[in-house]
Protein 1
Amino acid sequence: MNASHTLTDRAALTRNRSRATDDALFLHRAALEEVDDRLSLVNRTFTSAAIVTGFPQVWGALHPNATLVEDTDTLALTQGAHDLVVHAMGMHWANDPVGQIIQSRRALQPDGLFLSVGFGGQTLHELRACLGQAEASITGGLSPRIAPMAELRDIGGLLQRAGLALPVADSVTLTTEYSDICSFTATTTPRQRGASKQALSWSFWRAGHRRTASPNPCDPALRSNAWPMRWPRQKRRCAIDARP
């Protein structure tokens, strides 16, 4: 990929993920439970699943015989080999999200199911607003400090562009609160979760294959602008469809 179009530093992301502590992966486990619940509503037994994830130690529990694939720019998926492909909590890191979906579609058998879960557009919106207000008042400028996430209205379009049939997208809101921004960074930091300075609502995507130098956030001047942060979880709106 052209370096000018690279959004995610994969080397830095890999280093951050290697430092993630097990108890800080609670969002991945919550997402896994939601995906498992949605798959249980599908009147079909999947025998050749593939899971695209950066945390195989968590997502391997979703399907006992699944092929676990790292969420790199080029996915190690075999064309037409799987009846289920789950892209787990990694689409927001993709330099080319449509390319990731296309690669997943090509790996599907006819009538296969593609399911993706990731952080949605309202992820950390309180933190985004808090940091923006504090930085603007102190420095007079504004820097992007939260990674961009896909809005729900855009996700269906991405599925269609990738050539998938019957695309469905909905969201779930999981709320996690901390007393202030310093409690957030002290108890379960993005670095602990394997995501540093990178960015939680979840977005669930489902479709089938067609048959054919920053201010210190703990500074008292900033803390007056901080408020509890919330991360989404919305309940299912579709029969068999599926944040972060």
Protein 2
Amino acid sequence: MTEPDAVMVRIGEGVSLRERGKPVAARELFAQVWSEIGGESGDPFLRCALAHSMADVQDDVHAELLWDLRALAAADLLTDERAARGGVAGPVAGFYPRCTSTSASATASSASSTRHVNIFTEAVLRSTPSPMTATAR
């Protein structure tokens, strides 16, 4: 049996903080881990997991969206093999949101999902001014 990845353990600790109603403490832990893994230049698997978790503890919808976009960008760089080494049983394609509810969506490419998310993102960012808007663009 292999040892659990120390970064993933810390991400799990942050998720636990969030579930116990401590989003600020979770954000602080996630921010520290983000810095330690190298931020945008870190391992895509760790970035994807961390950014997804960080999105869940944001108070501001713009900040949440920014972190979700970071998770999607990291997922674009992942291989099924790297995800499997991280303990993910399914393909990386499962990391992407479904844009429609039809059975055809099961075969939609990540590029198509990302394009729809980008269109939505631009609409949201234009709709409400926020301190995060300048950062996200």
